[in-house]
Specification:
The chain is an alpha/beta fold. It has two domains: 214 residues, Rossmann fold (3-Layer(aba) Sandwich); 165 residues, Rossmann fold, CATH 3.40.50.2300. 35% of the residues lie in helices and 20% in strands. Strands 7-6-8-9-10-14-15 form a seven-stranded mixed beta sheet, with helices on both faces. β6, α5 and β7 form a beta-alpha-beta unit. α4 runs parallel beside α5 and α6 packs across α7.
Length: 408
């Protein structure tokens, strides 16, 4: 059982809010539709994240409401996501959470915006906890969309800053999934890395079908042939695990700078092969003191790691918005979340009003054997993510071109 005192900072509003004020909806149950893959190639990721939403949503929160997660399997498809969204709306659900796949996120964001324009009084809010295409908070921004993960460009700023002091990086190869996020990793990677390390050469840039490649050995062969000493990839799920398997089998000895090497199933695919070679930039690491009790209890209960803590940010901001609005009405909550600062597991986080992109601390961690200082055993491998760098929100904050259209 998850202790009620665990990570109260995840869901309590900051001191700038009157968290002690009477809240008319205290005790109300708020349903959140979880629309993500629960079957297919990315099922293990979706199922782990659903459990994480259930776990963090059950913690005490400033609004005093109860969250009920309602699962919908979108099979990682934008089309299936729209069907799931319609089903959720038909059931009267007013808050929607999704994160795995920017294509699905874009489809949901557009559909939610159109629905809300046509159905005043029945608005829906989209809580995006992991889809990181920068377009979602730039040219495709929507008042109804809130992103709680750092976007592709933000993580790349931190990654390039980490790479700045890594003199072993000289020749970089970009490999990614052929969809919005994969394309953006290479785009922003070339810009950010060149700005900080103009001496680095880019020796490859390739995309592969998402969720369809079973053998990455041909891609690994190309990396070897290019003379790369470093691979930058935004791959996740099976596409990350299978890529590492092929690299391990081929004896590819390079640096890896990744977005999602810490996601469910990938660490066990690495084992000790990735020691001191694989790095990840993320909003969290499992040895973070403020979340350690929670991740330990999650592992005891589910026999798997809690690998995504952006959900903690989402629940904290949502609860803070309800307190500020003194309501669970989606329109009032959305307005209250704009510009809101709350306390979360990594300190103060702010939902930037201009584009609804969360501003937050990022961590660069390396894959190493666990020790007395960093002793969380990731997926029972004897290895862990050891933090190397901490980046305050201003380091990775990037400008926005969003022209927000707000409801009257």
């Amino acid at each position: 059982m998850i202790a009620k005192t665990t990570l109260r900072a995840l869901v309590l509003a900051s001191a700038t809010l009157c968290a002690s004020a009477a809240f008319a909806q205290k005790g109300e149950t708020v349903k959140i539709a979880f629309i993500d893959p629960l079957s297919g190639s990315f099922a293990n990721i979706g199922q782990n994240l659903f459990k994480t939403w259930q776990t963090i949503g059950a913690l005490p929160n400033a609004a005093g409401v109860k969250y009920e997660m309602v699962p919908f399997d979108n099979k990682a498809s934008p089309q299936e996501s729209l069907s799931a969204l319609k089903a959720a709306i038909d059931q009267g659900i007013r808050f929607v959470a999704q994160g795995n796949g920017s294509g699905a996120a874009a489809a949901i964001s557009d559909a939610v915006t159109k629905h809300n324009e046509r159905n005043p009084g029945k608005e829906v809010v989209f809580l995006n906890y992991a889809a990181v295409d920068p377009a979602l908070t730039n040219e495709r921004c929507s008042f109804w969309h809130f992103r709680f993960d750092a976007d592709t460009s933000m993580k790349m700023e931190a990654m390039a800053a980490a790479m700045q002091g890594d003199k072993s990086v000289k020749n970089v190869y970009f490999l990614g999934q052929n969809y919005a996020h994969g394309v953006q990793v290479a785009k922003y990677g070339k810009e950010s890395i060149a700005r900080r390390r103009p001496d680095i050469k880019f020796v490859g840039d390739e995309l592969h079908p998402i969720g369809a490649v079973k053998d990455f050995s041909p891609y690994v062969a190309k990396i070897k042939q290019s003379g790369a000493d470093t691979v930058v990839t935004g791959n996740w799920g099976a596409d990350m695990s299978l890529l590492f398997k092929a690299a391990k089998d081929a004896g590819l000895n390079v640096n890896w700078y990744t977005y999602y090497a810490g996601a469910q199933g990938t660490p066990i695919a690495m084992g000790n092969w990735g020691e001191d070679k694989v790095r990840v930039v993320y909003v969290h690491h499992p040895n973070l003191a403020s979340t350690r009790k929670l991740v330990d209890e999650f592992k005891t209960k589910y026999k798997e790691d809690m690998s995504s803590l952006t959900i903690g940010h989402a629940v904290a901001v949502l609860a803070g918005g309800m307190v500020k609005a003194q309501s669970t009405d989606p329109l009032k909550v959305a307005k209250a979340m704009e510009g809101l600062t709350v306390k979360s597991f990594s300190g103060d986080i702010t939902m930037r009003a201009a584009d609804h992109q969360l501003q937050q601390t990022l961590y660069a961690s390396v894959w190493r054997k666990k020790n007395a200082k960093n002793n969380y055993d990731v997926e029972d491998t004897g290895m862990t993510w050891a933090p190397e760098r901490v980046f305050e929100p201003y380091v990775s904050s990037t400008p926005t071109s969003c022209q927000m259209k707000r409801p009257a």
